[in-house]
Every structure is written in C-alpha cells, then in structure tokens.
Amino acid sequence: MKKPWVSGVTQRQDKNNPVHIWETIWMLAKTDLKMRYQGSWLGIIWVFLKPFCLFLILNFVFSHLFFKSVPNYSIRLLLGIILWSFFAEASMVGMQSLLAKGHILRKAFLPKWTIVISSTIHSAMAFAFNLVILFLFLFLYYRIFPGAVQLLLFGVYVLLIYGLSLLFSFMTATIIVRFRDLNQIWEVLLQVLFYASPIIYPITSVPDNIRSVLYLNPMTLLIEYSRIALIDNSVARLDHLFILTGIFLPLMVGSIWFFKKTSVNIVEKM
Amino acid sequence: MSQQTAIKVENLSKSFMIPHKISDTFRERLIHFEWKKKYFLLEALKDISFEVRQGEFFGIIGSNGSGKSTLLKILAGIYTPDRGKLTINGEVSPFLELGVGFNPELSGRDNIFLNATILGLSGREIRSKFDSIVDFSEMERFIDQKLKNYSSGMQVRLAFAIAIHANRGILLMDEVLAVGDASFQKKCLEVFNRYKNDGKTVVLVSHDIATVGRSCDRVMLLRKGEIARTGNPEEVCSEYLHQG
Fold it and tell me: At B37, is the pLDDT very low, low, confident or very high (cuts 50, 70, 90)?
C-alpha cells in the first residue's frame, strides 16, 4: 500500500519567537558542553590537549621530512590540524544530532534545525579556544602579525569551513535516522579526506596533475589559503574564494531545503 | 466559559508505514523477489474532526492503540498530520512526559533550566520562577546535587514542579501525569482545579476513567482511530467501559 502524500496543514501561533529559539540552542549547547567534560580530571583542557597531542605526534613524525623545504612547518601543521578538527568534529556531531536528541524530539516540540546548530556549537567553541593558543604562538614565538585584510579573509575562510560542516550536517542528519551506517562511513571518509587535504604536507610538494584533483576538496583550498593569510601574511587569489562561495551558497540553500523537507516526518521514523 | 475555539481539528488523518515481517520461504522469496520492502499501512487516525473551546477541560479516552497518543503528539507539533488541518489559537504546553530532556549527570538546578527551556520558557521566565519551582518541589537542600542521586520520587516531584510552572494557555497532558503515589495524585488534582479556575484549556489523555469523569467538561472516545463518541463525561465513560 502506498503512503498518502503528506498534505496536513498546521497553524499554530507559538514556536516562532526568535529569542526563545536562540535560548534553546544555547541551552542545548551548554548541556552538551557540561556533559562532555563531566567527571574528567582535566575537564575543558581536553579541548586544547586533543589537537595538540595530535600536533606533537605529527610534528615529531613529519617535521624532519619537510623542515628544510617548508619555512614555519610546525605552525602550518598546527593551523591545518585546528581547522581540520573543527570541520571533522562539527560535521560528525551535526550528522548525529537528531539521533542523539531523539529522546527530546519524541516528547517535545523543538524546531529541528536548532538541534543541528546547537550540537555544532561545542566544536566552534573548541576551535575558538585553539585559535587563541595558535595566535599566542604566532605572535610570541614566530613574531608574525597578520594585517587586518588577512585577518578578515581568514574570518571568511573560517565561516566557510563552519558553513561546510553545517551543509554536510543538514544533508545527512535526517538520512542517518534511516541509514545508521552513515557515521561509520563518514569516519572512514574523514580519514581519507585528512590525507587528501594538505595538513601534514605542503600543497607544493604534490605533483601538479594530482594537485588539481586535491583542489576538488574545498578544505584543501580553505586550509591552504588560511596559511597564506595568517602565516605568510599575504593575500591569496580572491577569484578562487568567489568561485568557492558561489558554489557553496546554492548548495547551502539546497541542503537547508532538503533538511526542511525530510525532517517533517523524521520523529515518526526514529 | 468563552465560546472561542482553542483547538480546531478538521479531517485529520495520520498513518504509519510498518515494515512487514517477511515470513515467506526462501523459494517463495526468490520467485516473488522484490526490490522494495513491503510495508503495511497502520491508520492511527482516520478523518478526525473536533473542536476544543477556550477554557474547556477536554478528555480523550480509548483503549490501547486507539490513536490517543498519536493525536496528542500531533497537537503538540511532534508528529505532522498526513491530511487535514489543525488550527491552534494560543500557546501550547505539551506534557507528554514529565522531565523531558532530564539529564542524570547534571544538577537539579541545571535540569530545571534545561527542562523548562524545552517546555518553552524563556531564560528570564525561568529565573523569575526558579525559587517558586524549587519551593514547590521541596528540593532546596538537594538542588545542586546531581539528578542521578535523587530518588525517583524526587525526580518526579522536580519534573512536576517545572511542568506546572511552564504552563501556557493550552495544556496537553498525557496519562503520565497520573503516575505517582496518593499524595502526588492529590497534588495533580489540586493543580487541575487551579487551572480550571484560571480558565486554561486542558486536553487530557487518560486511561483513568475516574479522573476524566471528575475533571473534564467534555470527553471524546476514540476507537481504532475514529471518534466513537463525544459528549458529557458520564455517558462517554460508560460507553467506554461497556465497549468490551
């Protein structure tokens, strides 16, 4: 038998208060934050510790490979890791957000997009903390002081990275409810993408024909250009940024549309 | 009682696709091979229409699987109707479960803020009602303890205290409110009566015929997703008891 086409109309006066929506997002994010460091000795310090441990390992293994050919290799690696962790974590928790909050969604009405956004807030805050440390290194140890234009461009890159993880989350948060293998698949793909992005190696060490393939990964461009802005203190090609934004925006709109359409009946399927 | 409509439901239908358990033999499965899984359609609600007036206590009764909870979830905005129209004039507070979102690892204080936010209160409202919530739950000494250290009775008391402070114009209550010991039941009834005096609209879904008969102005009996009868509590309740 075929399911009749959904055409129910609901008119309600409540649930449209933007202030309350933001309060809800913040409350859910705060709960996630408290839960994450619940009962751990080092607590919030893990936010720094995790990417820095990864950095120390990778730096130890790879720095002698690239140390001579790449100036400031360590800080380049650190910036790459921080940006990558932001994307990887935000996309992972965003994808699983609706599933994780199923117990609430089944018993109370919340706009579903607020759940997706609130789950990524922790990643954004962790990123901000890590960025502070990176800037301390940059200013105090490397004595590099990026200009206003560079900082502004870096801000745009970061927004695009956050946007990409939200785009991915909106696309997958409803699919994973029906197809639970998705987080395992994404975990593996993230590993692949980690090595397909110029995080541990400089993009210049890649042969030209492969390089253009790597640039199909938007993180390649965003990580590489962030380094140009912050560490080389110069301005990367703006036309690439415009092209990337031009592709990103319609896809973002599309993912929000897809999410709206598929999340209507998602609670029934959880 | 004003005659203004609080909730208007017109020709509402809701069905669920339930996957079939395939119990055919392997040979049959090979012969009747299908790419798509077979589903059967469970019609939880069929063409339901009713109105709830402002300030009314409206009871919904019915046996298990009659569609009561599905209807309440649609009214709360959790489920989306397949067909039909639902109009709600006013703000809804759904109490399908006490303590939605309660987190055992957080303190009572944090849980009050979390649960009340989910129930639709603003941060300012919660802060202003916080002391009153704690007072009502009689939990002053334990409010900064983790919820997992509360007894289940204490948890219910805290959840109930939040719920009655989070009420809006229209309240949707599931039978979960009927759990608890005798003194808790009494507290529930007291609150019900207060709501009645305040002129709030309450939709109450329950198995407990006694409560429904006593507190409701009008009762609707659901049978297999259809309205069997709507009318005054005594008549509808007795029909429910005699339907077998």
Answer: low
Chain B residues near residue A32 by CB distance under 8 angstroms: none
> How does pLDDT run across B92-136, given as a tens digit for each residue?
888 887 888 888 888 888 999 999 888 888 888 889 989 888 888
- Return the domain boundaries, chain A: 18-269
Percent of chain B scoring above 70 in pLDDT: 87
What pLDDT, on a 0 to 100 scale, did the predictor assign at position A67? 65
Contacting residues of B for A106, CB less than 8 Å apart: 78
Residue A143 φ/ψ region, left for φ over 0, alpha for ψ in the -120 to 50 degree band, beta for the rest: left
Output the CA torsion sign for B223, B227, B233, B234. negative
Nearest CA-CA distance, residue B234 and chain A, Å: 31
As a whole number of angstroms, the distance between CA A107 and CA A123 comes to: 27
Average pLDDT, rounded, for chain B: 80
In chain A, which residues have their Cβ closer than 8 Å to the Cβ of B113?
A: 27
Give CA–CA dist B30/B21, Å, rounded. 16
Mean pLDDT throughout A17-34? Answer: 86
Domain boundaries, chain B: 5-242
Give me A71's structure tokens.
């100036």
Asked if A16 is an interface residue toward chain B (Cβ–Cβ < 8 A), one would say: no
The pTM for the full model equals 0.84
Top residue of B69, B83, B172 to mutate, by most chain A CBs within 10 Å, is B83
Give the DSSP per-residue string, chain B: ----EEEEEEEEEEEEEEEPP----HHHHHHT--SSPPEEEEEEEEEEEEEEETT-EEEEE--TTSSHHHHHHHHHTSS--SEEEEEE-S-EEEESSTTTT--TTSBHHHHHHHHHHHTT--HHHHHHHHHHHHHHHT-GGGTTSBGGGS-HHHHHHHHHHHHHHS--SEEEE-GGGG-S-HHHHHHHHHHHHHHHHHT-EEEEE-S-HHHHHHH-SEEEEEETTEEEEEE-HHHHHHHHHH--
Quote the minimal CA–CA distance from A80 to chain B in Å.
35
Specify the CATH number for B5-242; select among 3.90.600.10, 3.40.50.300, 1.10.150.20, 1.10.260.40: 3.40.50.300
Check whether A4 has a pLDDT greater than 50.
no
Residues of A in contact with B80 (CB under 8 A): 6, 8, 10, 264-265, 268
- The answer to whether A236 touches A104, Cβ cutoff 8 Å, is no
Q: What is the pLDDT of residues A104-116, one digit of tens each?
A: 888 888 888 999 9
Window 22-81 of A, Cβ < 8 Å to B: 23-24, 27-28, 31, 34-35, 38-39
Could you give the CA distance from residue B113 to residue B214 in angstroms, rounded to a whole number? 33
The pLDDT score that the predictor gives to residue A3 is: 42
